[in-house]
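#struct-pred

JT: dropping the chains for the assembly here, can someone run the whole complex?
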Amino acid sequence: MKGESWGRYPKVSQQVRMLEKRQQNPFRSKEELYLPYGQGRSYGDCCLNDGGVLIGTRWLDSFIEFDRDQGVLRCEAGVTLAQVLELVLPAGWFLPVTPGTKFVSVGGALANDVHGKNHHGSGTFGCFVRRFELLRSTGERLICSDRENAALFSATIGGLGLTGLITWVEFSLKRAPGPWIEMESVRFGNLEEFFGLSQESDKEFEYTVAWLDCVSAGANFGRGIFMRGRHVPSEAHPKRSLLGRLSPKVPIDLPSLTLNPLTVRAFNELYYRKQRQRLVKKLVHYDPFFYPLDAVSGWNRIYGSRGFLQFQCVVPSSGNSRPIAQILSTVVENGDASFLAVLKEFGDISSPGMLSFPRRGVTLCLDIPFRGTRTLNLFARLDEMTRDFGGAIYPAKDATMSAESFQQYFPRWKEVAALKDPRCSSSLWRRVTGLTQS
Amino acid sequence: MNKIVICGATSAIAVEVAREYASRGATLYLVARDGERLSTLASDLKARGASGVHTEVLDLALNEHHQALLARIKDILGAIDALLIAYGVLPDQQRCEEDVEATMQLLQVNTLSVISLLTLFGNEFAKQERGTIAVISSVAADRGRKSNYVYCTSKAALDVFLQGLRNRLFSNGVHVLTIKPGFVDTPMTAHLKKGLLFAEAAEVGRGIVKAIDRKKDVVYLPWFWIIIMAIVRNIPERLFKRMSI
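RK: done, full complex below.
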């Protein structure tokens, strides 16, 4: 059966077997290679297993225990963050960390050690995981926490599903007074201004992120809109946006030409111009604040069947805009306009995960339509630059980094390799460890 | 609406209905064959806010279990606000054509055992003079076709039985709901190729609760199946027998 990830590149051939209950043992054969699979929202090939079997966890969607006083939730690995929010928000709780889509599973959030707009103050999702159950291909079920099976605990957080099947997860939540976010957007003219805003905002706001115009060169190079927000109680009920109420779908693959340099340039220009004043303050629902793209289901089809590559790196910053400026100008010069570019400074809260991606520095994220060799060459160049700057690339979004780079970005990969389940593997793992088997 | 009985509680659609009621603080009595999945469901419902969850592992296909089940439920719940019968099997049509026993077995599970439950619980609801009896049938009940007519038959028989029961219990103040889901993405349909017509179990579950709240008689879920099936029902038999759908 054909398979692809959210980015739709690369295409592989693999089987999918759905688990019907967590007591089941999916590791049936000694020949096959398995990879746990939640919602398939990773972009590159970390959720693909060419020639192997995906263990689907979508039906493991039960809550197990919700402590409404302490804000601790235990649920099966296939529960999505959207389902978590529906349960916990009315009780006064929120996700401790959330990525840019709520349609990922809790197991996936753990295995990719996802981060969000509050990384500077809270760290990654893995920082809030108290314990989980790991089913190994031997049939053994291990409870992992920072005290029990601690090495496997660290190897599994950010471990890309390679240490076995996570059946349930217990994690702590954060208090939130309701669904409303007080949001400020501030226009910035260049990267120096971004770093200034970031330094100032990270002290006062739980959530910060910036949208970056990555088409414009010259005087407009590095301009963008900085967004910052915090949870606030509100009796008011601001209207939800038209997009949020309609929840449109992209029902078919659009022609690959839909996103061409012209339309992307127009989009970037409009997005920047939409905001007339330098600073705009408003009260918004958490959905458009955290999950703007979730409003259009199947948005990845906008890129057509050839798909797109996402590039997300982190590079050391300490207020230095040079690395980001160089990466950005490489993209702009190549003419491979990105529809959406996101910039954020990470904090220095470290995760328990051995393969965790976030680290002190600034992270840049770009979507680039796949156009064959030319795109691959650009990505090889970006990988090289990231390596030279002493940064790292996010495996959850990667389809191209070299084995050499991966091993430099994630110096603890050998520890993970030693703890990995011998029957688990993925397309990404085989690529970045330079192995053809397991 | 706070005391709910669900037969076949671990079926994907029933799970979603149970979750809706749990978040309203209902007390549920759940019956299913698989004890592990039943206990997973029970803790899920408690986490969502159910006031109480009672579970019973039982093979409902066996009519002789039904009388005692009803007695136990009455013991624990007293009155019943709603009964949902949600179990059923999608058989291998070809096997049913080759093996009479397979067909008879399917009819026992999908139809006869349900009629047994409906007769016993129907009398109980008549005495209570209130409450809802809801049964998951299928859009397949609307017309027999070669690719799965044994399944169509098993559900069509239920439809007619429910019509009569609704007519009978109306004067007792009891509401009878026939639920007709189309294709739903569940373990039962895991082997089928998913097209645009497939709905999520959660969407269908919410639709069922809404139909119970509004005391509907028959509900198609999602709603567009009412149009599709009106067309399918009205194709003349002369033409229909030549078609492959």
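JT: nice. Residues 3-240 of chain B form a domain with the Rossmann fold fold (CATH 3.40.50.720). Chain B touches chain A at residues 12, 34, 36-37, 40-41, 43-44, 47-48, 187, 190, 196 (CB under 8 Å).
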